[in-house]
Design a protein that fits this description.
The chain is mainly beta. It has strands at about 5-10, 15-25, 35-40, 45-55, 65, 75-80, 85-95, 100-110, 120-125, 135-140, 145-150, 155-165, 170-175, 180-190, 195-205, 210-215, 230, 245-250, 250-260, 275-280, 290, 300-310, 315-320, 325-335, 345-355, 370-375, 375-385, 390-400. The strands form seven sheets. Strands 1-28-27-26 form a four-stranded antiparallel beta sheet, with no helix packed on it.
Length: about 400
Amino acid sequence: GASDDIPASIVSGSGKTLIEAETSVATGPDGFVVVAYIAVQFSGLSTNGYRFSKDGGHTWGEPSFLASPGGRVASDPVLVFDRQGNAWMSWVGYRLMQNGPSDMHVYVARADAGTTTFGAPIEVSDPNAGTQLDKPWVTVTPKGAILVTYAETSTGAVFAARSEDGGGTWKRAKVEATGNSFGNLLYPCTSDSGRIYVAYIFITAMGGGGVRLRWSDDDGVSWPVGSKSDVAAADEQPAFEDPNCAAVGNEVWVSYGVSGEQFAGQQSAKLDGIKVAHSSNGGHAIDRRSDALDAAASTFAMHPQMVREDGGAFDLVYYAGSETNDASGSFRRVRSTDGASTWEPSVVVKEPLVFVPSRADQRWLGDYTGIAWREGSLYTSFVDNTGEASHVAFARTPLP
């Protein structure tokens, strides 16, 4: 039943892959759950791994794989279920060259309602653009369209692509041309007011940075220039770390990490705070910020992800540790029942873990974790790296 507690256990184990990390989870109707992750093959190249459960996460089908077209590698998978019960995965595919990724494309694939296999990849990005792309994220708009946000890192622009016909055709709009700044790590969320928000990290030409919120009132078709605000406080130093958002009515919340460390390509910043900013006027102004990091449990955090429960409580999960490569790190969840003003003490989802900021380590924790809420339970997927290498674990917790 919906109240069952499912303790953390590894769900990605497969004789076909070396390590698994970077994970997303989504819940659908009739007990369907799907977990996706980057599956690093023995060749060193990566594909999308995924597993479905039909009973709320108690038992799982065999690990399956979804490759990018044309022999490209795959990275950054994200999942969502639409209102018809179809599961969608978005990701970025590219060729790995000596000087880095090239021939980059953003794709989606659909698993039809009631099935457990994703169909053929569908291109979302401009097939002829020849640009560098990063960090797609997928959601469903208030009118039921599929919306994929992503960054064009070669120009600094950020995009939202929208399909009203089940992925058949896509209309791409610039969320922000960004001019002399660089945007990335887009995260979309929707309000029952009809407004769609995108939170993302921006870095200016001068090297400063922040967290920006943009919004659309026509279901993601257009993103007017004036529909934006900056989220972080002037004295905060936001980290290059995925922000999240959640919205209801005219209220919107944005979570983001802060850190004293500069972003370095192969290292994730150790966060010394997980801020949650709140706006009561549709994103125009931030009226309060709280810190969800449980300082009594750990000094640092990485890769927070936030979800709003139907009843209005908030859940946030993150990796916790006291220092780089802390072997007694943990994956924790923290909850707020007062609109993210204050946070209860954190609860362990899994310990120990190794608190590894390095992307080059076989115990890599990925760049984000999976979180979902459905009918009284919190679902999460994350990396368990207590062995020699990273694997993806799943846990489900009923909450009052």
